[in-house]
Amino acid sequence: MPSPNALYLDLIKRVLANTVYGDPPHPNTWRDSVDYDAATRARGADWPTVAHTMIGLERLDNLQHCLETALADGVPGDVAETGVWRGGACVLMRAVLHAAGDVDRSVWVIDSFEGMPKCSAEDHEADQAMALHDYNDLLAVPLETVQDNFARYGLLDDQVRFLPGWFRDTLPTAPIDRLAVLRLDGDLYESTTDALRHLYPKLAPGGFLIVDDYFLPSCRDAVHDYRSEHGITEPIQDIDGFGAYWRRDR
């Protein structure tokens, strides 16, 4: 029989992804169906109308695994996500800390809260064609809405810290000392590069770097360019065909 903490976190994930009620997705350029599909939602391959996350159960499981491993191994530092949408992944991180009885670490919720910026010259044509900023009526979630989502789970407290603004403006001076888990969900080349440049040096040895959009050519290029520039050789591990992660060497 699973422990009460395991059951709590499993329920949190199912509610975050709304596999409980199965809300229909928004149509978009690569999936025009508006019918809920359990397998698609589990893979995080749709844009939910109601759910608090679009990353799916498999990437939520990965995030839980990375954070619980970091906690078990005593990796120091806070946890952070760059690009949070409705805040679901950050809610899970706060729930994991709560279940573990951790009262010292902060969850950094980092987003423009204004949606996606326009593509830059470094972004691939395929990614530019997606024109994610054209969906900002869906992707732009106000700070107050994200805060309210935390409160709905009873998880809005002093351990949740918000950093609003464009990454290029906020990350160079972000008051973050050390990180145990860093999750990137910025999609684009510049957004991914900004997060890596300013936050990866703060990732403690033994900590985890998770890239939600590794399947996007622009995001993947940003990751490989940064790794090459800084001699990072830890193996990249696939999560679900969309996201990927690696653990920083001790």
Structural class: alpha/beta
* Low-confidence spans: none
Average of per-residue pLDDT values: 92
Main beta sheet? 7 strands, mixed
Shape: globular
Number of strands: 9
- The separation of the N and C termini measures 34 Å
Looking at the structure, the CATH topology is Rossmann fold
Q: Beta-sheet strand percentage?
A: 15-25%
Radius of gyration: 17 Å
What is the share of helical residues?
Answer: 25-40%
Which second-level CATH architecture applies? 3-Layer(aba) Sandwich
Strand order across the largest sheet: 5-4-3-6-7-9-8
Oligomer: single chain
- The string of secondary-structure elements, in order, is HEHEHEHEHHHEHEHEHEE
- By DSSP (H or I, 4+ residues per run), the number of helices equals 10
Number of domains: 1
The CATH superfamily appears as: Vaccinia Virus protein VP39
Pathway: Antibiotic biosynthesis
GO molecular function, one term: methyltransferase activity
Family: Belongs to the methyltransferase TylF/MycF family.
Organism: Actinokineospora globicatena
Describe it.
The N and C termini lie far apart (34 Å). β3 (78-82), α4 (88-100) and β4 form a beta-alpha-beta unit. The protein has 250 residues and is an alpha/beta fold. It has 10 helices and 9 strands. The strands form 2 sheets. A 7-stranded mixed beta sheet has the order 5-4-3-6-7-9-8, sandwiched between helices. It has a single domain, classed as Rossmann fold (3-Layer(aba) Sandwich), CATH 3.40.50. The longest helix has 17 residues, at 56-72. The protein has helices at residues 4-16, 38-42, 56-72, 88-100, 125-130, 136-139, 143-152, 167-170, 189-199, 217-230; strands at residues 25-26, 47-48, 78-82, 107-111, 160-164, 179-184, 203-211, 237-238, 244-247. One of its GO terms (biological process) is antibiotic biosynthetic process. It holds the Pfam family TylF. This is Methyltransferase MtfB. Belongs to the methyltransferase TylF/MycF family. InterPro entries: SAM-dependent_MTases_sf, TylF_MeTrfase.
